[in-house]
Structure formats: structure tokens, C-alpha cells
């Protein structure tokens, strides 16, 4: 059994007044596109969000073909690390794939490979380009990463990569990533202009 966790609770200030998670990308809410991309390689979906987002996210994910849980943030404004922690705490499987809500080109073949590579370890995390880790496109042992996030937050750290370095993790390098996906899988949407360009590509 595998869980997919989508982190949707950010304020996305560069996106304007609209909630990016439910913004329409070529007629489909952005969060739904991400969920649909991973549906073939997960069994259960968890969506992390702020309480005021719950109704809109439930509407965006209505009819989704996997069981879904909404995991609301309890502490506001703690950033994506807290969102990952909350999402992973709601996971009932040993391993979970964590993705940001704004990655509409996510490749399920890579997600599948990350689950394979994480087996027996605490995490499998892509590292591409000039050494950039992709912690919001990674598979974690849910309890280990949630505990690591909690410890980092208690120490006042909000750098999303910090908890990873306390875990037994495996790196999936760019060459291996490219065996399963293009680097578009990591592309995220931050502005209305980027959303418009993505819509053009989706045609």
C-alpha cells in the first residue's frame, strides 16, 4: 500500500489573490491534475491544507478514484515543512510520496521508481541540476520523516531540506531520474503567467 501526500496549504503570494491549489489549469484544478497524475501509483491520497481551504479542495477532488483524506494544518504559518509533517502523520502506510500541489507535469513512472528505491530506507529523494534536492517530489518513510520535521521545527528550523539530512536516505541522481521522466516532472507553477504557459503546453 502506498500513500500520496499533496501539500496545498501554502499562501502562494506570487500567484495573487486566488488559491493556487484550485486554480484552473486548462479546465482542471491544479491540485486535481497533480492527484490524477499520481493516481495509478498510489492507493490512498492525503491532502494537507489550511482549514479554510478544505471545502474548495474537496470540491476540486470530488470523484477522485482513490480514498482521500484532508489533513488540516493545526499551527498556522509554519511553512511547507509543517505541511509535510501533518500530511505524513495522516498517512497510514509505511511509505508516502510527497508532492507540492503545483507540479502538473509530475511523472508517475518516477514516483513508482522512488517508492522502489526507498524500500528499507527512510527516504528516496531526487537530486538534479547543480545538486538541487527535490524534497517535495520524494518518497519518505512516513513516521521517520514526520518525526524529523517535528524535531526540526522544535529547533526553529524551517528549511525544508533540513529534516532529510537526519534520515537514512538514498539519492536518485539526474541520470537515474531521466531514465523514468523528463525534468518537467519537477516544474512548479508560481505565477498566473506560468499557469498560462502550462495551459498552452497542455493544449
From TrEMBL:
Main location (coarse class): cytoplasm
Domain of life: Archaea
Top-tier EC class: transferase
GO CC terms of this entry: cytoplasm
Coiled coil start-end: none
Binding site for GTP: 7-9, 20, 48, 73, 102
Reaction(s) catalysed (UniProt annotation): Mo-molybdopterin + GTP + H(+) = Mo-molybdopterin guanine dinucleotide + diphosphate
Subcellular location: Cytoplasm
Entries under InterPro entries matching the protein: MobA-like_NTP_Trfase (IPR025877), Molybde_CF_guanTrfase (IPR013482), Nucleotide-diphossugar_trans (IPR029044)
EC number of this enzyme: 2.7.7.77
One of the GO BP terms on file: Mo-molybdopterin cofactor biosynthetic process
UniProt KW keywords: Cytoplasm, GTP-binding, Magnesium, Metal-binding, Molybdenum cofactor biosynthesis, Nucleotide-binding, Nucleotidyltransferase, Transferase
GO molecular function terms listed in the Swiss-Prot or TrEMBL record: GTP binding; metal ion binding; molybdenum cofactor guanylyltransferase activity
Residue positions binding Mg(2+): 102
MobA-like NTP transferase domain segment(s): 4-161
Domain remark from Swiss-Prot or TrEMBL: The N-terminal domain determines nucleotide recognition and specific binding, while the C-terminal domain determines the specific binding to the target protein.
Family: Belongs to the MobA family.
PANTHER family: MOLYBDENUM COFACTOR GUANYLYLTRANSFERASE
Function: Transfers a GMP moiety from GTP to Mo-molybdopterin (Mo-MPT) cofactor (Moco or molybdenum cofactor) to form Mo-molybdopterin guanine dinucleotide (Mo-MGD) cofactor.
Designated name of the protein: Probable molybdenum cofactor guanylyltransferase
Organism: Haloferax sulfurifontis
Gene name of the record: mobA
Amino acid at each position: 500500500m502506498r500513500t500520496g501526500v499533496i501539500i496545498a496549504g501554502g499562501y502562494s503570494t506570487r500567484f495573487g489573490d486566488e488559491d493556487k491549489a484550485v486554480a484552473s489549469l486548462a479546465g482542471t484544478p491544479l491540485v486535481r491534475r497533480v492527484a490524477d497524475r499520481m493516481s495509478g501509483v498510489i492507493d490512498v491520497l492525503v491532502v494537507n491544507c489550511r482549514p479554510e481551504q478544505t471545502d474548495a479542495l474537496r470540491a476540486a477532488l470530488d470523484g477522485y478514484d482513490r480514498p482521500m483524506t484532508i489533513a488540516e494544518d493545526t499551527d498556522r504559518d509554519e511553512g511547507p515543512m509543517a505541511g509535510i509533517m501533518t500530511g505524513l502523520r495522516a498517512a497510514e502506510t509505511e511509505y508516502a510520496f510527497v508532492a507540492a500541489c503545483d507540479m502538473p507535469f509530475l511523472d508517475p513512472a518516477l514516483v513508482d521508481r522512488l517508492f522502489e528505491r526507498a524500500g528499507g530506507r527512510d527516504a528516496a529523494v531526487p537530486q538534479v541540476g547543480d545538486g538541487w534536492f527535490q524534497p517535495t517530489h520524494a518518497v519518505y518513510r512516513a513516521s521517520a520523516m514526520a518525526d524529523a520535521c517535528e524535531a526540526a521545527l522544535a529547533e526553529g528550523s524551517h528549511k525544508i531540506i533540513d529534516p532529510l539530512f537526519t534520515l537514512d536516505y538514498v539519492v536518485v541522481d539526474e541520470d537515474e531520474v531521466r531514465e523514468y521522466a523528463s525534468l518537467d516532472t519537477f516544474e512548479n507553477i508560481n505565477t498566473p503567467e506560468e499557469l498560462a504557459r502550462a495551459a498552452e503546453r497542455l493544449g
